[in-house]
Structures are given as C-alpha cells and as structure tokens.
TrEMBL record:
Native source organism of the sequence: Bifidobacterium polysaccharolyticum
Phylogenetic classification of the source organism: Bacteria, Bacillati, Actinomycetota, Actinomycetes, Bifidobacteriales
Domain N-acetyltransferase: 17-215
Database matches in Gene3D superfamilies: 3.40.630.30
Name of the featured protein: GNAT family N-acetyltransferase
UniProt superkingdom: Bacteria
SUPFAM superfamilies cross-referenced by the UniProt entry: Acyl-CoA N-acyltransferases (Nat)
C-alpha cells in the first residue's frame, strides 16, 4: 500500500493525456490555474490574487499524502490532492512555504484582508467538519479537485476522479469526503450520488462565525455557499464525471 505520491509512480494515460505524481516544480501551474479560476477581484495588478492562490494551494498541500496531476505533455490539465490521515506527507516543506506566503500577504492592506477572509473560510470548514463528525479517521479527504478550463470535455476530470477512487479502494479506505462551494460544479457530486453532509449559505457565514457583519459590512459580502459531501468508495467506483471545482 502506498500513500505518498512521491513513491506512487504508476501513471494513467489516454492518448496524449497522462496522470502522474505531482512534483514541487508543478506548483506554478497549480497556482496559476487556481488564480485564473478564483481571482481576487479587488486586485487589478494581480499580485495579491496570485499570493492568495498560493496560500490556498499550500494550505491544501500541508496535509496531502497523495498528489496527482493530469498533463498533456507539459500542459497542466488538472490535479487531485488527497489527505488519507496516515502515511508520509508529499511535501513537508509546504507548511514553511505557507508561512512565507502569508507574511507576504500580510504586508499590504488588501493582502491582509484577503488572508483574513481565507483563514475565516478555512476555520468555517473545520467547524462544519466537526459538526459532521469528520474529524475522526478513517475518512480520507479529497482536499482539492481542480480541472483547468482548457481540459473541459476531454474526460480529464473523470479520469482524475476514478484514479482517486481506485487508490482509496486499494488502500482499504472505505469512505471519503470533500469540501466544495457554489462557485464550483456542485451538481457533479449530486449526480455521483454522494451525500450532502453539511451546507452553509453565504448569508449565514457571519452568524456561524459569531461575528457581527456590521463591524465590517464587506467582509462577508458575496461569499459563496459551502458544502461538504461524503461517500463510500465502493458506491462511487464505476462512476465517471468531469468537474473543475475546489
């Protein structure tokens, strides 16, 4: 049984598209794709937006034990980051790099505000997990499932999804869960027959966080709905789909 992508060398290939273990050199592609998908709109120059994307990618990588990317030659098409709750971490240096990126974000007013929103989002996800009883293993978490817009319609999302399911099955992990939100193709998970374990509407974020929205009216403005989905691996095997979500 292998739980670290650094040792998981088997690759899937169909035509010119392949799935292989992620390496640190893939980071710019992941950050660029995340940034293109979820830009910080208040940042026309793009510096804070790219740092925010790096923050989220590194946040997901901190607990990742299996990281796989889909490529067409050198062209990045998609990624799955999986935390199995056991085994070696793929990128131990991710935590230190996250601290460095967060210091850069904190150096400007917009960056600090963006970081505060990101951390609030992540704390909200943790609280929702606890309410669902997901803090207890052996559930694995699919921390990031992202498909580039240029890969849509090529079966890349379905291949990454099945690659993850087959790995979980071989690893003897029966259940997994993931976070998503209303900026993503939430219907994909409904179509897959996964169970919606939690839902938090954007209008309810402030109350859930115990914060008075009048203190900073723009802090929660336009924030997405959050969902947690869970599923049994054996139920999901044999189902394919395409998704470009967080």
């Amino acid at each position: 049984m292998t739980t670290s992508s650094n040792h998981d060398q088997a690759s899937w290939r169909r035509g010119s598209v392949a799935i292989r273990p992620m390496v640190w050199a893939d980071m710019p592609d992941l950050v660029g794709t995340f940034d293109a998908t979820w830009k910080v709109q208040e940042d026309p120059e793009g510096t804070v937006s790219r740092l925010s994307a790096a923050h989220f990618i590194l946040h997901y990588l901190v607990g990742t034990t299996r990281a796989r990317i889909a490529v067409d030659g050198q062209d990045f098409l998609g990624v799955t980051l999986l935390a199995e709750g056991r085994g070696e971490l793929c990128f131990p240096k991710a935590e230190e790099e996250l601290e460095r990126v967060d210091r850069q974000l904190s150096a400007t007013t917009l960056g600090a505000h963006t970081l505060d929103r990101a951390r609030q989002w992540q704390l909200t996800e943790v609280r929702l997990e606890k309410q669902c009883g997901l803090a207890v293993p052996p559930q694995a978490e699919l921390r990031l499932f992202l498909v580039s817009s240029r890969a849509r319609g090529r079966g890349v999302g379905g291949a990454l999804w099945r690659d993850t399911l087959e790995h979980l099955d071989q690893a003897g992990i029966e259940r997994f869960y993931l976070h998503t939100d209303s900026s993503c193709d939430v219907g994909f998970y409904d179509h897959q027959g996964m169970e919606r374990l939690a839902e938090l509407k954007g209008r309810d974020h402030a109350a859930f966080a115990g914060r008075d929205p009048s203190d900073d009216p723009q802090f929660f403005e336009g924030i997405d709905d959050i969902f947690i989905y869970g599923g049994r691996v054996s139920d999901q095997l044999g189902k394919d789909g395409d998704h470009g979500g967080r």
